[in-house]
Amino acid sequence: MLPDGKFDPILAIHPPAGATSGDLTEVAFDGTHEVRLASEELGAGVAHLRLSGNPPVQQSVPVHTVLIVYRDAAGRPLDALGGEFG
């Protein structure tokens, strides 16, 4: 939640050295979202998730499962991170 009360889910990330991009898969209440992380997002340490709409009232935290595959400049996987968030 942003300070103005609007919903904009973000996830703090800590990419490994040498990562220049990442592939993020997010499974949330409204479906599965694929997000390509650019070097700017990796450098900022923040991934903006793609959840859309408003979660049901009984579901206070809309982010469920996230998997990130970090890649080097050649597109080869370097590392991966996954888990349940929320």
List the helices and strands and how they pair.
Blueprint: E1 10-12, E2 21-28, E3 31-37, H1 39-44, E4 46-48, E5 63-71, E6 77-84
Antiparallel strand pairs: 1-4, 2-3, 2-5, 5-6
3D structure, described in words:
With 86 residues, this protein is mainly beta. It has a single domain, classed as Immunoglobulin-like, CATH 2.60.40. 7% of the residues lie in helices and 44% in strands. A 4-stranded antiparallel β-sheet has the order 3-2-5-6. It has a two-stranded antiparallel ribbon with strand order 1-4. It is globular, with a radius of gyration of 13 Å. It starts with 9 loop residues before the first strand and ends with a strand. The mean pLDDT is 82.
Supply the key terms.
single chain; 86 residues; mainly beta; Immunoglobulin-like; 4-stranded antiparallel sheet; two-stranded antiparallel sheet; 1 helix; 7% helix
